C-alpha cells in the first residue's frame, strides 16, 4: 500500500503540472484575445472618425453643387455671349457630382477619391474663369441675387477647406495607427483599408478666385 502511495504522488504531481500549464496557456490566450479585441475596436473607432470627418466634406460639396445652377442661371441673363464659359461650369459641376457619387461616402476608395479631387479642381477652375469674365459685366455684379449666391458659394468654399483639413487629420491618425505593429496584423486579417487623403487646391487664393469683387 505504501508503494501504491509513492506511485500516486508523481502521477498527481504530473496532473497538477499539466493543469497549471493548461491554465497558464488559457490565461495567455485570454489576454491575447483582449489585446486583439482592443486593437480591433481602436481601428474601427479611427476608421469611423475618418468616415464621419469625410461626411462633413460631403455635406458642403453637396451645398456647393446646389448653388452653382442658380449662379449660372443668374449670370446667363447678363452673359448671353459667354455660353461656352457657362456651359463649362455646368459640365464641370456634372463631373464633380458624378465623382462624389462614385466615392459613396467611402474615403477608402482610392480611385474614386482621386477622381473627386481632379473633378473638384476642374470645377474650381471653371468657376474662377466665370467670375473673371463676370468682372466685365457691371450690371451682373450689381445684381442682388448674384451677390448673395457668390457670398454663399465663397462661404461654402471656406467650409469645404476647413472640413478637408479635419478629414485629412483624421485619416492620418487612422492610417498611422493601422501601419503600426501589431495593429497592422489585425488590420490585414480583418481587411481594414487606408483612408485616402483628399488633396484639393483650396488655398485662399483659389477660394478668392470664385468671388466677384463687388
UniProtKB/TrEMBL annotation:
InterPro entries: LemA-like_dom_sf, MamQ_LemA. It is found in: Membrane. This is LemA protein. Keywords: Membrane, Transmembrane, Transmembrane helix. It comes from Algisphaera agarilytica. It is a single-pass membrane protein. GO terms for cellular component: membrane. Its main location: membrane. The chain crosses the membrane at residues 20-41. Belongs to the LemA family.
Amino acid at each position: 500500500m505504501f508503494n501504491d502511495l509513492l506511485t500516486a504522488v508523481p502521477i498527481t504531481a504530473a496532473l497538477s503540472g499539466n493543469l497549471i500549464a493548461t491554465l497558464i496557456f488559457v490565461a495567455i490566450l485570454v489576454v491575447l484575445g483582449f489585446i486583439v479585441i482592443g486593437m480591433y475596436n481602436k481601428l474601427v473607432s479611427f476608421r469611423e472618425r475618418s468616415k464621419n470627418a469625410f461626411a462633413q466634406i460631403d455635406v458642403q460639396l453637396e451645398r456647393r453643387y446646389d448653388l452653382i445652377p442658380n449662379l449660372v442661371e443668374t449670370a446667363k441673363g447678363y452673359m448671353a455671349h459667354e455660353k461656352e464659359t457657362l456651359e463649362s461650369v455646368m459640365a464641370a459641376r456634372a463631373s464633380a457630382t458624378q465623382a462624389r457619387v462614385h466615392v459613396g461616402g467611402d474615403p477608402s476608395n482610392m480611385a474614386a477619391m482621386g477622381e473627386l479631387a481632379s473633378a473638384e479642381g476642374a470645377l474650381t477652375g471653371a468657376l474662377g474663369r466665370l467670375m473673371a469674365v463676370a468682372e466685365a459685366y457691371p450690371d451682373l455684379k450689381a445684381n442682388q441675387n448674384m451677390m448673395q449666391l457668390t457670398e454663399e458659394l465663397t462661404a461654402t468654399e471656406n467650409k469645404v477647406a476647413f472640413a478637408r483639413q479635419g478629414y485629412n487629420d483624421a485619416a492620418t491618425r487612422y492610417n498611422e495607427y493601422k501601419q503600426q505593429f501589431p495593429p497592422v496584423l489585425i488590420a490585414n486579417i480583418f481587411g481594414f483599408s487606408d483612408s485616402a487623403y483628399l488633396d484639393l487646391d483650396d488655398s485662399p487664393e483659389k477660394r478668392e478666385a470664385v468671388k466677384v469683387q463687388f
